[in-house]
Design brief:
Blueprint: H1 6-22, E1 28-30, E2 48-50, E3 54-57, H2 80-85, H3 92-104, E4 109-117, H4 123-137, H5 148-151, E5 154-166, E6 169-180, H6 184-201, H7 208-222, E7 224-225, H8 236-242, E8 244-245, H9 247-260, E9 265-272, E10 275-284, E11 287-291, H10 293-296, E12 307-309, E13 318-319, H11 326-331, E14 349-352, E15 356-360, E16 364-366, E17 369-372, E18 381-385, E19 391-393, E20 398-401, E21 405-413, E22 419-427, E23 438-441, E24 445-448, E25 453-455, E26 458-461, E27 470-474, E28 480-482, E29 487-490, E30 494-502, E31 508-515
Parallel strand pairs: 7-8, 15-22, 24-31
Antiparallel strand pairs: 1-2, 2-5, 3-5, 4-6, 5-6, 9-10, 9-13, 10-11, 11-12, 14-17, 16-20, 18-21, 19-20, 21-22, 23-26, 25-29, 27-30, 28-29, 30-31
Helix pairs in contact: 1-4, 3-4, 6-8, 7-9, 8-9
Length: about 525
């Protein structure tokens, strides 16, 4: 499946253009009487030139198919009347849209009429325009049955140009003669099957990552490699309906399912140690990942080797130049690391919906608890209160304010390896309670040598605050530690901050520690 430069085909067409200018070998001029076109306001006579049909194997299948495999169409003869009556495109974008519509329907002969302002267009200009329309018609759009699906869906193509000059315009038609791997009927079957697979997998309600995982799993579980000679194996039909295909079939089914599900996916071609090969890239977040369902086919999820890989770890896959250029990489930036697909069974952190609460006596509040990583299915938590006389907490995480004061509610995993705290302040009607308004430290910064100590003192405002309990913490235990009495010990060179927090009101103050 080695690639052939598309410009070779264009040069063949341009060769026909040269023949137009120099001889009548490829182009046949036909004159028409004024009566044939005068009703439409044409000049008394319009000459229409039509090229022979020039055929080319689809560049992505060069080396697999030959021109002998292509269906040969009948050259199209255009009359001035047909040109006048036809709906005409006025630019290459409209031409590409008309061509694409025919490709999607698997029409074997597609005729695109045009009317271009001015009469300076040469045969060479029009041949370039005809080929440009083809290139634009198969550009990736994010729609499952367009873009790469069309690009890889035809065996080869024949192209013919017919044109004339009329009323200051260049008018004519581009005729395309297609040989496909599938028929319109087979494509209808594919559409129905893709919709059925999508529904059975529940793709519409899944997250981006789960859509990709479900589609990849379906293809790996249901499609096997086709070593036969039937060319249908190169199609999505082979993978979706027959469930036997080669790499194009695998990749086209992934392309169809994911793009239809709203996940951007491309088909990539390149070389491996076994020869030419096709695979996919898929977008997750803002970057793309490689996956190769052909090489992971028949494997279980835990054994996948080619699923959501960065380029560095996607071994033995060398892209063709068209898919490795700077322009392509700018459009489809790849992740610098593999995507983490396996669930992590270890809870790294307990995450609480609130780290502090202010409550009135008799109030209740519920803490929502989750874990990090977020894809871990874990719900075995233990709840405790440092002072049940102030606030108590039940096994579901509901906190009840009992009396004025402060306490700490701790939530931990069943094994106690991960935990988090919520500081609770209960306000009441006790007129004798004096709340903390602020706290200061006796030092704002301290410089210490390794292993030296310093004691920090917290000064509460007002001095007669009812609760004088404070909590000491360090921003970096590796640099300096602090105990419950505010004694700081230097551990190694660096900088950190010691923070004191009042239990009443959660007021804070910091001291910068520099260890030399």
């Amino acid at each position: 499946m080695s690639i052939m430069k598309e410009k070779k085909f264009r040069n063949r067409l341009l060769g026909a253009a040269s023949a137009l200018a120099l001889s009548a070998l490829l182009l046949v001029g036909s004159g028409f009487s004024s009566s044939a076109s005068s009703a439409q306001g044409d000049s008394p006579e319009m000459e229409i030139n039509s090229s022979n049909i020039v055929y080319m194997v689809n560049p992505v299948y060069a080396g697999i198919a030959t021109e002998a495999d292509l269906k040969k169409g009948t050259p199209v003869t255009i009359t001035p009347q047909a040109l006048n009556e036809a709906e005409k495109c006025t630019n290459v974008t409209e031409m590409a849209a008309a061509l694409k519509a025919g490709l999607v329907k698997r029409q074997e002969t597609i005729q695109v009429f045009f009317s271009l302002a001015g009469t300076n267009y040469t045969a060479k200009d029009l041949i370039n325009l005809e080929y440009e329309a083809l290139e634009k018609a198969i550009v990736h759009t994010g729609v499952g049955n367009e873009g790469d699906y069309l690009k890889w869906g035809y065996t080869g193509i024949g192209m013919q140009v017919s044109y004339g000059k009329s009323s200051g315009d260049t008018v004519g038609s581009f005729s395309y003669f297609l040989t496909y791997y599938t028929t319109a009927g087979q494509e209808n079957q594919v559409t129905s099957k893709v919709q059925s697979i999508s529904s059975s997998l529940g793709l519409s309600s899944k997250s981006e990552a789960d859509k990709i995982k479900a589609v990849y799993g379906y293809i790996c579980d249901n499609v096997t490699y086709d070593y036969g000679k039937d060319v249908i194996k190169y199609s999505c039909y082979a993978a979706a309906i027959k469930k036997h295909a080669v790499c194009q079939g695998y990749s086209l089914l992934a392309y169809r399912l994911l793009n239809d599900a709203g996940v951007d996916c491309r088909l990539i071609a390149g070389n491996t140690s076994s020869g030419a090969h096709g695979w996919n890239i898929v977008k997750m977040g803002s970057v793309y990942y490689n996956f190769d369902s052909t090489w992971d086919a028949g494997m279980k999820e835990k054994s996948y080797k080619y699923f959501l890989k960065c380029n560095k770890n996607f071994k033995d896959h060398d892209r063709w130049e068209a898919y490795s250029s700077g322009e392509f990489n700018a459009l489809y930036p790849m992740s610098s690391a593999d995507y983490q697909t396996q669930k992590v069974d270890v809870v790294n952190k307990v995450v609480l919906s609130a780290d502090k609460l202010s409550m009135d006596i008799g109030d209740t509040e519920s803490l929502d608890v989750s874990v990090d990583p977020g894809d871990v299915d874990y719900n075995e938590f233990k709840f405790s209160s440092s002072d049940k006389k102030v606030a108590k907490v039940d096994e579901s995480g509901e906190i009840t304010a009992v009396a004025s004061g402060t306490c700490v509610v701790t939530v931990s995993t069943a094994d106690g390896k991960a935990s988090n705290k919520c500081y609770v302040t209960v306000k009441g009607a006790d007129n004798n309670t004096v709340s903390v308004k602020s706290v200061k430290l006796n030092k704002k910064s301290v410089k210490l040598k390794v292993k030296k100590k310093v004691k920090l003192k917290a000064k509460l405002n007002p001095k007669n605050a009812t609760s004088k309990d404070v909590i000491w913490t360090t921003s970096n235990k590796a640099v300096a530690t602090v105990n419950k009495k505010g004694v700081v010990k230097a551990k190694k060179k660096g900088t950190c901050y010691i923070t004191v927090t009042t239990k009443d009101g959660l007021k804070t103050a910091k001291c910068k520690i520099t260890v030399k």
